[in-house]
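agent> Task received from the user: take the single chain below, predict its 3D structure, and emit structure tokens. No templates, no multimer pairing.
agent> Plan: (1) validate residues, (2) run structure prediction, (3) serialize to tokens, (4) report one or two observations.
agent> Step 1 OK, no nonstandard residues flagged.
tool_call: predict_structure(input=
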Amino acid sequence: MTDESTLSEETGQADAGENDPGVEPHQRLAAEVEALKAKADENWEKAVRAAAEVDNLRKRHARELENAHKFSLEGFAKDLLQVRDGLELGVHAAQDENADVHKLREGSELTLKLLTDVMSKYGIEPVDPEGQPFDPEKHQAMAMQPSDIVPPNTVLDVVQKGYELNHRLIRPAMVMVSQGPAAGGQQPEIDETA
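)
tool_result: status=success, residues=194
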């Protein structure tokens, strides 16, 4: 039976006592009060249980969030350990008196490729703007050089690559920028609003 039907039966029994000449009015009211107290106690227990469930859910969510923050880099760290192992092997091989430079170079290239693959897997991509227009949002100009070959404000050389993490810049590329041919001693400025 539902809670409502139970309550109506209980109050119905009390109402039936109204017509019963053998039941005193205060007994009838006392029976009604007892039925209502029982219903209130039952509802109170349900509310306490629901509050406890919400509290447990909140605590579990906080614990899971803390673990997510704490261990979010675990996969990246495991993949990066492979790169470290490759570097250690390379350093160990280079210490040998009979080290083959060709093999050392090959090992270094493989380790660099492994590092590039790990970075790419986690959304870290290089910013290598050689030949592109200078972008102050992604590039840091180290110096300007006159050039008859490319238009002004073009990246001539990349001194140090920049990097983005999921399309968000984490380090700008350090670049050499063309300033156009030197004419009459005037040096055009880099258009930093581009």
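agent> Step 4: summary for the user.
Residues 25-71 form the longest helix (47 residues).
agent> Done.
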